[in-house]
Amino acid sequence: MPKKDIKDTGLQITEIMKVGPKVPKITGKDWEFLAYELKKLKVTPGEVYRIVSEKIGGTNVRFEWKMLRLTMFIWARVKEDEGMYLKPKIDTVRGVVSARKYKQFFYGYYPDLEFDHEKEVRLLNKLIADKGVRPYFNEGYYFYEGTKKPIPQKVLDKVLWDK
To answer: Disulfide: which of 91, 105, 132, 135 matches 87 by Cβ 3.0-4.6 Å?
Structure first.
């Protein structure tokens, strides 16, 4: 992947972290019949929006959610690195999943699902350990929280792999 694409992805994720997920309210008389039919099928508006935006809108909800979770984890590790020592990764994962911001983004991307803290801890921990995710732990994907300054590879290596 070219360096420009990596930087663009990092900037997009940083922007999403600022403004939150885009989930508009569906209102108006044009939607009454559709709403009635969806209620009969027991489909929530959030579920409909998620499916339609992924299929038609060109957004990749799964990729964005993965990158947001990794970004929140990296930010937590960088904050820990400023202190005396790094906590074990599982403790950082628990802290990230317990954060209010994590839950808000979870419900923003998956409003139709129930939040299960232990399941989310397990999934994030598994995601971080997955070898297929390693290419995303490179410089250019992550920026310091609240800035557009990229986190250097040296810092990423220290907070992710340093023993």
So the answer is: 91
For 18, counting Cβ atoms within 10 Å of its Cβ (0-12 exposed, 13-18 middle, 19+ buried), the class is exposed
Average pLDDT along the chain: 84
Kindly report the three-state secondary structure assignment for every residue of the chain.
CCHHHHHHHHHHHHHHHHHCCCCCCCCCHHHHHHHHHHHHCCCCHHHHHHHHHHHCCCCCHHHHHHHHHHHHHHHHHHHHHHCCCCCCHHHHHHHHHHCHHHHHHHHHHCCCCCCCHHHHHHHHHHHHHCHHHHHHCCCCCCECCCCCCECCHHHHHHHHHCC
Ranges in the chain, pLDDT < 70:
1-4, 22-31, 57-58, 163
Which residue has tokens 């790094």?
86
Give me the count of residues in the chain: 163
142 within 8 A of 74, measured Cβ to Cβ: yes
C-beta separation of 50 from 61 below 8 A: yes
Domains of the chain: total: 1
| pTM assigned to the model | 0.72
